[in-house]
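Input record (one chain):
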Amino acid sequence: MLFQVHCLIRRLQISLFPVDYCPRLGKRHILQTSRRVILWYECVVYVTFPSFHNIEGFVVKESEYGEGNLQTDNKVFSAALKSNDEQPALVHQGALKLFLHIMENTDFQAKMQIYIDSKQRKLKPIIFVGHSLGGAVATLATLWVLEKRLRQSSPLCITFGCPLVGDAGLVEVVGRENWAGNFCNVVSKHDIVPRMLLAPFESIAEPLIAILPYWQDIMANDSKTVLHSSIQDACRTLLNNVLQYTHTVTNYGPDSIRELDGAIKISPYRPFGTYMFCSGEGAACIDNPDTVLKILHLTMQSYEKPCDNIVQDCFSEHVEYGSVLNHVIEMSISGRRTAKPDSESSDKMGMSLQLEAIGVGAQNDDAPIALQMARDIENNHNTNVAKVASELSEKQCIMAELEWSKERSEKENAITYYDSFRKHEDIDTNLRRERLAGFWDEIIEMWKRHELPSDFQSQNKWINAGTAYRRFVEPLDIAHYYSTSEGKGNYLSDGRPTRHKVLQKWMEEKEKTRSSRGQSGRTKLASLTQDSCFWAQVEEALKEMKNLEQGQHQKLGSLEMFEGYATKMINDRNISSDVFLEGSSFMEWWKEWKEYKKSRFPVWRSPLHEIMETEGCKG
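The corresponding structure, as predicted from the sequence alone:
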């Protein structure tokens, strides 16, 4: 990782950082438009976003921390980017405003559309790079390409000194979609910018506005500037304010923050992706969001430097990432990093090396604890996944037993396994149903408690297993509901278990990715009805028929809607052949519905009528 990032910096210094040298790049093409540069080099497309020095373009006065909904009226990002509890993901509105300006006022979108077009014979890898506020825009550009889902290979985003961009909801989106590996954020030890949005804007605006012209002068002229006393004071104020708020955010757990948030507005921003922390001692990569947040605070503190030196560093390190990376790669090649001599294990030695590399002193007790917690969380996730994977094998045997019962019911008794269980609950089948329900309920609870990896619900193994379970067993849950409730209530609104809702949501999120790759329609009826709630729809339609026969003609509209739903299911071949067995609940409804329609409209025809009368349902 260090060597790759260093090589990338050497290629992009001309467009991203002011430096005093530029190596020969070989054959390359550069296209520079408003506030970004596109560079082709060795069949790779680099899109760079230099820092934005006009702070007014980043200011948001509508909220204390500048956060707002990622979805806007122009729908650049879809409403699907929501947290696990269906809340909209929040991002800094200043960064979003800058990104939307580029999207709407330059040819950026048209250029990117060429490179993300899946019809190309050979897709060019895309790397988005940004420095400072440009890093926030590069992050949003990467999210935009990722959400398009048009590329076989994902883009990579590398930022330098980038402020935090999104809230915990966006972190959940990135984890759920398995996008965290697409982001690498390089942070110098004392650079203030990656931490500044942990403080409310009113506490950082004045000193930041004072500092920006000096940053701009250094960037433009590649000069070393001696800080004026007023700038030193501004840096000191900025540092103190940011440290105060980062301490509050990082020294409370998630539950404590939620309680505190009722009385004090806490910054919503949280890190995601891999963070490469750099110092004079080397560099180390960390990807656990809570640990990254902790290290962002701890590395700003120092026990070995006077406060004035830190003030100078928080100003200068933000514009010296070219030098920082040069130093890191030299340290890495020379191997000048040593573990503590009293390290008791390889695990402790590894943590010691990480702490030394990011420049956190041995006298800081919080840093080792933060790293150990991150490792413990990862180990617990791995242990839990191994445990449920082992249990899944056992539950798949139970599923096989249910499949055998289903086949026997259809072949020997000529009745759907739904109707068979609806009319007479077999004890063994009911026991298997309950055991499977307990297994998936526990998985959902572990997921809600964050005891499983963040991308667990997007892994094909669990998507496929959960979908197979839901489509096969939910009809049994529906049969149990209507056989025990004596017709009271509606399963869809009153009785559907949470596990089925969550598993369906996981599948639908995954289908958005699969559908973008182009899937042809079915040519034969499905082996299992794709809508696991189909039989609940049938049960409600049967109840509506009884109401209709009793003179409640307002039910006619809902029955016609059900007819249209059934017609589409059949036409799309998303229904299984057992639905049409003589005596099934669906056929019972169809006979009643056809009789009702014929009694009032003797020449009545409909698409479903044509299908049923011509035996098109068997195709």
